[in-house]
Amino acid sequence: MPMGAVIKAIVAYKTPFWRALGFSGQIATDDDTLGIVMEDAAETGAPTLLCFMEGKHALEMSAAGKEVRQKKVIESLVRFFGPDAADTIAYDDNDWLLEPFTHGYVGHMPPGVMTRFGHALREPCGRIHWASTETATEWAGYLEGAMRSGIRAAKEVIRLHNTG
Ligand SMILES: Cc1cc2nc3c(=O)[nH]c(=O)nc-3n(C[C@H](O)[C@H](O)[C@H](O)COP(=O)(O)OP(=O)(O)OC[C@H]3O[C@@H](n4cnc5c(N)ncnc54)[C@H](O)[C@@H]3O)c2cc1C
């Protein structure tokens, strides 16, 4: 299960202008440079839009470099939220493809892996039981999945211990 290609960008604004337009700030699409966008408009600090470039878009944007990425991200936000999206106060991004130890943020199964090997994902090997987010039945790839899988593996071991 290799890591997927993802770049995360954060764009800050003076106000959460998208709310005034009746938008939640959320985008999910596969036909744009930005695949996922969500707002982070906490009580303190500047309101921001968290933006993710994924898959082939991330590969293209990794090769293009930060200056081009910034331009493309703002263009996309204008496409979805209108001209106010161009009025940013700060931009930053992290190209996870260049991170040598993580290389992304979610492991994924290429075609055929789940159907051929999925049955072995949570199968204990003798006394060894498997946790990790990749083995989660919900929220695989995320912290929620990591915790759920830890609880599941612990329960497996307790059950085994109790039944001898
Ligand atoms: C850049 C990035 C951003 C992310 N953002 C989010 C987010 O916003 N929200 C979210 O929910 N999730 C996010 N995730 C995913 C989340 O971090 C992971 O799903 C979660 O940490 C996985 O937990 P885990 O316990 O399965 O594995 P890990 O946290 O990877 O733990 C595995 C542990 O095993 C240790 N280990 C490995 N090999 C050995 C060995 N041979 N012997 C002993 N120890 C070993 C490792 O050092 C590590 O401590 C992100 C991940 C990355 C990389």
Secondary-structure topology with pairs:
Layout: E1 6-12, H1 17-20, E2 27-28, E3 36-40, E4 48-54, H2 55-64, H3 66-81, E5 90-95, H4 113-117, H5 143-163
Antiparallel strand pairs: 1-4, 1-5, 2-3, 3-4
Structural notes for this entry:
It contains 5 helices and 5 strands, in the order βαβββααβαα. A 5-stranded antiparallel sheet has the order 2-3-4-1-5. It folds into 2 domains: 6-98, Polyamine Oxidase, Chain A, domain 2, CATH 3.90.660; 113-163, Orthogonal Bundle (Arc Repressor Mutant, subunit A), CATH 1.10.10. By secondary structure, the protein is α+β, with helices and mostly antiparallel strands.
How are the strands of the largest sheet arranged? 2-3-4-1-5
Number of distinct beta strands: 5
Q: Give the structural class.
A: alpha+beta
Number of domains: 2
The proportion of strand residues reads 15-25%
Query: Terminal Cα separation, in Å?
Result: 34 Å
Overall geometric form: elongated
**Which second-level CATH architecture of the largest domain applies?**
Alpha-Beta Complex
Give the CATH class of the largest domain.
Alpha Beta
Radius of gyration: 20 Å
Oligomer: single chain
For the structure shown, list the relevant keywords:
164 residues; Polyamine Oxidase, Chain A, domain 2; Arc Repressor Mutant, subunit A; five-stranded antiparallel beta sheet; 5 strands; binds flavin-adenine dinucleotide
Short précis:
This protein is of the alpha+beta class and 164 residues long. The chain folds into two domains: 93 residues, Polyamine Oxidase, Chain A, domain 2 (Alpha-Beta Complex), CATH 3.90.660; 51 residues, Arc Repressor Mutant, subunit A, CATH 1.10.10. The chain contains five helices and five strands.
